[in-house]
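Lecture notes, unit on protein representations.

Consider one protein chain, 112 amino acids long.
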Amino acid sequence: MTFVVTDVCIKCKYTDCVEVCPVDCFYEGENMLVISPEECIDCGVCEPECPIEAIVPDTDSKADAWLDLNRDYAEKWPNITASKAPMEGADSLKDEKGKFDKYFSPEPGEGD
């Protein structure tokens, strides 16, 4: 089992989760994070740290659509291991539906 980041993270990018990850398996895109399923050790410490519940176990039905995206972009985006400020307007966008189609960017973030 692994954990995955869902579209809830898009345009928010809270990074509380990366600070607690013992294996540094988070990768940063321009406007969201992903988890490398090959590196995740299923410890689960990241899930409760996400203030908007964007992280789910791959056994959750919400994860089905996001596992491949996490795997693919973890290979393309830079690693992130330290907290950063969330994106501007994150609080107002955290509950918005359909964020992938509206806002997803395949561009990499800055990483560490």
